[in-house]
Design brief:
By secondary structure, the chain is an alpha+beta fold. Helix content is 63%, strand content 9%. A 4-stranded antiparallel beta sheet has the order 3-6-4-5, with no helix packed on it. A two-stranded antiparallel ribbon has the order 1-2. The chain is elongated.
Length: 310
């Protein structure tokens, strides 16, 4: 984003935080170069002494890089929210430099709006770029340990929910920065609130859509009812009365896998799971919730600045 093409408070906002604005594309470029290099290296096959294909060191490095990226990107909304709350909003309110902007034919709402627009634009463009880079590597190692579509980390890093969380971080930072007016406390509170929303929606997201249920004869292992890409929510036994029992109930009584006593009245086994086709609907529902929360928080932030500085 070039400050030369902007005017008024937008030019000031970009000028004040130009170092961060230059750092963001630089880090994205480095991440892209590393990802492409690992992706290319992992594609070259190697063979053992019997000429059988084996995994390359590049593949192992790519998996490790993707696991680290998954854990890191989850904290991106917290980082964005803390930066908006602290350096962008609270610092000017704490030091009083925001009053200088009001002497330049700028209203308080325009001053705050410039902060929000610059932060949101950079955050959205940056998170979209990171999602694209992440998916470039994830396509090579998906459906492996800790990198399935439903795992914590890959789920947030590979879809539009990351953009939703980032925008919520911007909104919370804007509101909390005005309320707290101290840099470090504002950053801490914003990070705590953003993280709480993240944890709350993690606990709720797999209840947005109904699970798929498959049943079979009680001698069948219920895990075999789930497709390889499915996300198992629960497995167990159905009795003739419709009661649910844990899968291991029969084994505890008979010590023989898959064999149940007649008096247990077991009718079938069941498996509740989410198929891979639930990925995008769940992403879109969660993203919609996040955008609605962000709009509500931003509305409160602008109502607050209007009340304090009409």
């Amino acid at each position: 984003m070039s400050a030369r093409t902007l005017k008024g408070p937008y030019w000031v906002a970009v000028r004040q935080h130009r170092r961060v604005l230059w750092t963001v594309p630089a880090l994205i470029a480095v991440g892209l170069v590393v990802m492409v290099a690992l992706r290319v290296w992992s594609a070259y096959p190697t063979y053992d002494e019997l000429h059988r294909p084996v995994l390359t060191p590049g593949y192992d490095l790519l998996r490790g890089y993707m696991q680290s990226a998954s854990r890191s990107l989850v904290f991106l909304p917290l980082l964005v929210g803390a930066f908006v709350a602290g350096p962008m909003v609270s610092r000017e309110l704490e030091s009083g430099t925001w009053r200088l902007a009001l002497t330049q034919s700028t209203t308080a709402r325009a001053w705050l709006g410039s902060k929000v627009l610059v932060a949101a634009a950079v955050s959205v463009l940056g998170s979209l770029a990171l999602i694209g880079i992440y998916r470039l590597g994830w396509a090579r190692v998906s459906d492996t340990y800790e990198l399935h579509w439903y795992d914590r980390g890959p789920y947030e890093s590979a879809g539009p929910v990351l953009v939703g969380y980032v925008l919520l971080g911007v909104a919370l930072g804007t509101l909390v920065g005005q309320l707290v007016r101290r840099i470090l406390p504002a950053m801490a509170v914003t990070g705590l609130l953003t993280g709480s929303v993240l944890l709350g929606l993690r606990a709720l997201r797999w209840s947005f859509l109904p699970v798929v249920t498959e049943t079979a004869h009680h001698g069948v292992n219920p895990d075999s009812l789930v497709p390889p890409s499915g996300f198992v929510m629960s497995t167990g036994l159905f009795t003739t009365t419709g009661e649910r029992k844990p899968w291991y109930s029969c084994y505890e009584e008979t010590q023989i896998p898959g064999v149940c006593r007649d008096d247990m009245d077991v009718a079938s086994v069941y498996a509740h799971f989410h198929p891979a086709s639930h990925y995008w609907p769940t992403q879109l529902i969660e993203t919609s919730i996040l955008l609605a929360l962000a709009v509500a928080v931003l509305y409160a932030a602008f109502r607050l600045v209007r009340k304090r500085h009409p």
